């Protein structure tokens, strides 16, 4: 493990890399949210059934399940830099093609491929960022990646609202194609981003690792310092290592808390207008779109206090208390399905604000809990597992609202969130201030004292 990187000063290089890596989360938030607005015009134009709407809403999430598991392993094998722009090119092509399609199966297929590309970006970009960051800034900057997700979601609703006002629901094709513009912007920003020195050293390219550290951090580093712990050499890599004790528990924790969080969350963002309509939100699709956009904005705002708390209070207490409090507004709406639209909007905004804790830890935890040789694999697997819940929730939510009603649907969401609380109480570890991917022998339990990185004196 590299103390030089862990204790390096925070520079413009880190800021630029963090911005470049935020492209994947921002595009994910935009792509998954814009379809919720586009469906208001797509449904009457194409004569979509409820099942068709569910399929289109869930297709990208199923693609993310496949892409996360597949490309996480590939990223650990062939490197972060190799795939850093290819996934954005795929997003550009799929976004442009979305403008021309009419068949439900074609739209669902493009959304599936988009989901694969977005999921590929998570293990690539977050692993690359984590392996370059100083330890004092790691939690904040990894957490800020989810801020980019909500920024993308808010931008999607603002864009969708503008299209609705200027061109009406028939502009849904332009909405789906608009993500190509963002992809091109981040293709430019990512030019020149370097490979991870930790990955280079772990794969025998110590000289290249030393060179990129000197080039981008302006300091000399001993190549041996970048090498993995000798005790970890020779272990089986990839998915097999994730399933060995104690990584098995860490793998289950990262996947399950992520799943329990995003199942209700993605369903809410994808079908926010429909949920608010079920509570009697007046004003038609424009008002419902604005209401969902407000909820997305509150999701974004809730991340900021959480970013501070994970570095002052700690990762474990933040995630436990967040899940506990997130359950309350969902349970309230489940018990009171006839609540006025204003109360429902307020309760959903409260839920959105309280989601800040798990949100900023979604990628922080898997990047901090696993070593370099399986870090991207762990992020990919956690993303894939989470998208099972997101896909199921997104597919079932419109069916549940129609078949079971608003109250039972909200109670199911509350129960899923309560399960996430239980997972965190049992398995959440404290990784604040620890060396990246500290040995599990050091951090064997949720309350264990972890291996701290000494901070440079001032």
TrEMBL record:
Keywords: Membrane, Transmembrane, Transmembrane helix, Transport. PROSITE patterns: MFS. The keyword Transmembrane applies. Its main location: membrane. It is found in: Cell membrane. Residues 17-432 form the Major facilitator superfamily (MFS) profile domain. The chain crosses the membrane at residues 17-41, 53-74, 86-108, 114-135, 147-166, 172-189, 250-269, 289-307, 319-336, 342-365, 377-397, 409-428. SUPFAM superfamilies: MFS general substrate transporter (SSF103473). The keyword Transmembrane helix applies. It is a multi-pass membrane protein. PANTHER family: SYNAPTIC VESICLE GLYCOPROTEIN 2. This is MFS transporter. It comes from Kitasatospora cystarginea.
């Amino acid at each position: 493990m590299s103390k030089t990187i862990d204790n390096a000063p925070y520079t413009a290089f880190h800021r630029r890399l963090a911005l470049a890596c935020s492209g994947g989360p921002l595009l994910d938030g935009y792509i998954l949210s814009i379809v919720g607005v586009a469906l208001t015009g797509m449904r009457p134009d194409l004569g979509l059934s409820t099942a068709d709407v569910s399929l289109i809403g869930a297709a990208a999430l199923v693609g993310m399940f496949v892409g996360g598991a597949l490309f996480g392993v590939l990223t650990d094998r062939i490197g972060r830099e190799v795939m850093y722009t290819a996934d954005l090119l795929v997003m550009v092509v799929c976004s442009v093609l979305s403008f021309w399609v009419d068949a439900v199966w074609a739209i669902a297929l493009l959304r599936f491929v988009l989901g694969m590309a977005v999921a590929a970006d998570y293990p690539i970009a977050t692993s690359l960022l984590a392996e370059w960051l100083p330890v004092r800034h790691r939690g904040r900057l990894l957490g800020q990646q989810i801020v980019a997700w909500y920024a993308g979601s808010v931008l999607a609703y603002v864009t969708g609202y503008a299209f609705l006002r200027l061109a009406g629901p028939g502009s849904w094709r332009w909405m789906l194609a608009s993500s190509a513009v963002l992809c091109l912007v981040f293709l430019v920003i990512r030019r020149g981003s370097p490979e991870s020195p930790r990955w280079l050293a772990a794969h025998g390219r110590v000289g290249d690792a030393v060179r990129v550290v000197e080039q981008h951090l302006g300091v000399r580093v001993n190549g041996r310092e970048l090498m993995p712990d000798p005790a970890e050499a020779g272990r089986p890599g990839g998915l097999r290592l994730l399933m060995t004790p104690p990584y098995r528990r860490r793998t289950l924790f990262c996947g399950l808390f992520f799943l329990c969080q995003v199942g209700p969350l993605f369903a809410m963002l994808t079908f926010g207008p429909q949920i608010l309509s079920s509570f009697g939100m007046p004003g038609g699709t424009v008002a419902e779109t604005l209401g969902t956009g407000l909820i997305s904005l509150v999701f974004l705002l809730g991340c900021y206090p959480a970013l501070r708390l994970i570095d002052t209070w700690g990762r474990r207490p933040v995630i436990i208390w967040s899940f506990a409090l997130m359950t309350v507004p969902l349970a309230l709406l489940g018990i009171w399905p006839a609540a006025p639209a204003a109360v429902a909007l307020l309760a959903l905004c409260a839920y959105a604000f309280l989601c800040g804790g798990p949100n900023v830890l979604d990628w922080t935890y898997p990047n901090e809990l696993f070593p370099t040789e399986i870090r991207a694999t762990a992020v990919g697997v956690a993303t894939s597992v989470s998208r099972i819940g997101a896909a199921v929730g997104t597919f079932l939510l419109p069916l549940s609202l129609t078949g079971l009603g608003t109250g039972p649907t909200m109670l199911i969401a509350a129960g899923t969130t309560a399960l996430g609380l239980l997972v965190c109480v049992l398995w959440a570890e404290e990784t604040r201030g620890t060396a990246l991917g500290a040995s599990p022998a050091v951090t064997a339990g949720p309350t264990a004292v972890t291996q701290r990185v000494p901070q440079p004196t001032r």
